[in-house]
Specification:
Number of strands: 0
Radius of gyration: 24 Å
Shape: elongated
Distance between the termini: 62 Å
Order of helices and strands: HH
Number of helices: 2
Largest sheet: none
Structural class: mainly alpha
Length: about 70
């Protein structure tokens, strides 16, 4: 059965890729430092564009709550 499947796959140019797994190696401290560096631009972008569809608490996508400003 497996040989038949392999032959049919080859006949129709079907390839199954190898699984890919990406590993990230960092620490929580590094992540927090990166967040602090980008905080001003993230806040500016949030104020300018809002959260769009993710903002379920308001009908205005550009409205930012007081705790995020």
């Amino acid at each position: 059965m497996r040989i038949m499947i392999i032959k049919e796959f080859k006949k129709h140019n079907i390839a199954i890729p190898w699984p890919i797994q990406t590993e990230y190696h960092s620490s929580v401290d590094d992540e927090l430092k990166d967040l602090k560096k980008t905080e001003p631009i993230r806040k500016k972008t949030l104020k300018e564009f809002g959260t769009g569809d993710l903002d379920l608490n308001t009908s205005d996508p550009k409205k930012v709550s007081d705790d995020e400003s």
